[in-house]
Amino acid sequence: xxxxxxxxxxxxxxxxxxxxxxxxxxxxxxxxxxxxxxxxxxxxxxxxxxxxxxxxxxxxxxxxxxxxxxxxxxxxxxxxxxxxxxxxxxxxxxxxxxxxxxxxxxxxxxxxxxxxxxxxxxxxxxxxxxxxxxxxxxxxxxxxxxxxxxxxxxxxxxxxxxxxxxxxxxxxxxxxxxxxxxxxxxxxxxxxxxxxxxxxxxxxxxxxxxxxxxxxxxxxxxxxxxxxxxxxxxxxxxxxxxxxxxxxxxxxxxxxxxxxxxxxxxxxxxxxxxxxxxxxxxxxxxxxxxxxxxxxxxxxxxxxxxxxxxxxxxxxxxxxxxxxxxxxxxxxxxxxxxxxxxxxxxxxxxxxxxxxxxxxxxxxxxxxxxxxxxxxxxxxxxxxxxxxxxxxxxxxxxxxxxxxxxxxxxxxxxxxxxxxxxxxxxxxxxxxxxxxxxxxxxxxxxxxxxxxxxxxxxxxxxxxx
Amino acid sequence: xxxxxxxxxxxxxxxxxxxxxxxxxxxxxxxxxxxxxxxxxxxxxxxxxxxxxxxxxxxxxxxxxxxxxxxxxxxxxxxxxxxxxxxxxxxxxxxxxxxxxxxxxxxxxxxxxxxxxxxxxxxxxxxxxxxxxxxxxxxxxxxxxxxxxxxxxxxxxxxxxxxxxxxxxxxxxxxxxxxxxxxxxxxxxxxxxxxxxxxxxxxx
Lengths: 465, 204
What we know:
The structure holds two protein chains of two kinds. Chain A is of the alpha+beta class.
């Protein structure tokens, strides 16, 4: 309503403005012509100094009721003849004609003054001026304003009366559609439908399409829910399955640790007893055998422990927290040093490296890595073990580096396999599970581990989390 | 110079040559001392013939000559004075540089009507009053616009006669004479004439 009213007003204004402008031009043209006619008729009067003749010429302007006064002047500007519609007429101060200018005009309030040079056979011989009233112009303006006002009022009234009809047909259904769309998005209730009308116009087509769209959405939504529920159920089943498996595994490892260990303890214990009680009765070979039996039992026990650790790692949940990895490394290093204070090892640890991960598992990993580094540098009198951060392809990786025995890079694939050992146990003791455990821990944190090394030049283990 | 010559023309009518010369030089000497009053009188006289000279030129702008063989050949537009010249150099000054119908206007003095045949406009001086009939007869149908101050000029067959109305120089027109000579007078000209007469040539 407001918009159309404003548009109408603007259009009316533009038309009126243009018309007034062109009317003003027409008035000026008209005056110019009248001045020319008067001027050319007064030529001989000017040339032969006949003021009466000039005045007679000017008086012909009486036929134009709009003309208030007119006059003819000599080229020097002296009055020669004059005409005035009404008896009283003020003396005019005429605008001067510039050199070369043949006509000029000036608009006053409700009148216009035109001044024109009278030219005869190429020579200016006088000046004619006409004063015309603009009442006609203003009357026209008032008429136009009146008409515009009436037209505006009538059309606004008509719009007011007709709009309810259009509202019913168009606006209301569309508004309703908008409402329903909002309702659906807000409440996620896909069962509502827009009210259909019997008319076969574009709006009803829109409503139908909208409704069918809603039906489709509803179907999809229901299918989604069903799939979701099914999935939930499957997940539930799997979880229960997994839980069961886990429980079984727990029971298994418990029984393993218990049941396997008991005979082991027996083997070890009785071997020790044998050595202690009957050691003198045996010769060196016999004692050696018994030592070996004991060693093997102990080794098997260690293996069982490591396996249990490994399985525990795989089973346990990760509790992620912010952890100062450098502190863990330092603590582990201190422990190792305390265990063998005679060894000269230089630990280079980058401080302040914080990670987000399970503190227990990461501690195990660090213990394993540092333990390995400690073990494999034992052959050297002076060793260097380094822990820090390394940027690889934009992803930061932590590393533990030692300058110990190293390994043959051709066998780097086998490093992380369980029970895989690249060194004989005579050189370096170990179960071969440590790195497998570290790999499992790193993988569970969503990271990767890899190693670089050379024989006798040390090894570097990189891992990301 | 102007003033001097007009005084001379005034004296011409009444005095002999020698006396005229003596008086002229006397007046010339005294004029320097009596400048104000004499010049005022001379001014008024000068204005009169300035105005008339201007009018002679203007008449030419409102009269149409029929396409005549003799005039077509003529490159200039001569405005002539026959008889004793009352204008003097005023005429030449006012006419210099002007054109009518694209032809340059020239001032000429003639003494016989035959010499005036190729004039367009001829001012007949007061001195020709006695010989008017012959003069006009000599110009018969020659297409010359005759203008004069001579009394009853238009009744006697002249075309434009200067008259004094109040203190304004006006003129009356004999339309018939003009038409007989093949001249067309613009209605604008007739509008400002004091009288438009239709006499056929009567002579004295």
